[in-house]
Design goal:
Blueprint: H1 3-30, H2 35-50, H3 55-73, H4 78-101, H5 105-113, H6 117-140, H7 144-175
């Protein structure tokens, strides 16, 4: 495949994965949830946020969580399954918050999408999943050795996106707490 075609193919696959990532979140929002289940999930979220303490603790907690999730998502074959399950769970968390706060879940979700950190975070995870998919394809085609540099670059790029998103998200958490 010509270099230009390869770049086009990679970008197209990234866009498709990004849309799937958002689609799985929307499916998570669509799930029926009782008030008691929603309250339980929101209390877990509040507990996690309250454990962080300082702004630096919050930032490091987000980086650690996103970093671990991203590295799992980068694993060829299994990573995308984990990534889309995590995306679905994120949608369920949005649904839980919307139930407890008496807000339309889709309105809440799209308001989150308008923040600067959410699209950047989704992009970071999508790059990680894309790296996994491309590497899995390369393994099946027996060209993984030639793909390793692109794979590692995509992992680095996804971590950079997630680190920046974590910084912005920390600022938002400091100003707009769940409490």
């Amino acid at each position: 495949m010509e270099k230009r075609e390869t770049v086009t193919w990679r970008l197209k696959s990234l866009v498709v994965i990004y849309l799937f990532f958002i689609g799985f979140q929307l499916m998570g929002i669509y799930v029926n949830m009782s008030l008691s289940d929603a309250e339980r999930l929101v209390n877990l979220l509040r507990e996690k946020v309250s454990q962080t303490g300082t702004t630096l603790d919050t930032y490091l907690t987000i980086i650690k969580s996103n970093g671990i999730n991203d590295l799992i998502m980068c694993i060829p074959f299994a990573g995308p399954v984990y990534g889309f399950m995590a995306s679905f769970a994120t949608g369920m968390a949005v649904k839980a918050v919307s139930i407890v706060q008496h807000v339309d879940p889709y309105q809440l979700y799209f308001s989150i999408l308008l923040t600067p950190f959410a699209p950047l975070e989704f992009l970071g995870f999508s790059i990680g999943i894309n790296a996994s998919v491309v590497m899995a394809y390369s393994i099946l085609k027996k060209i993984a050795k030639a793909e390793i540099n692109h794979y590692l670059f995509q992992i680095l790029l996804s971590i950079i996106c997630l680190t920046l998103a974590a910084l912005i998200e920390t600022i938002f958490i400091e100003f707009y707490s769940l409490s």
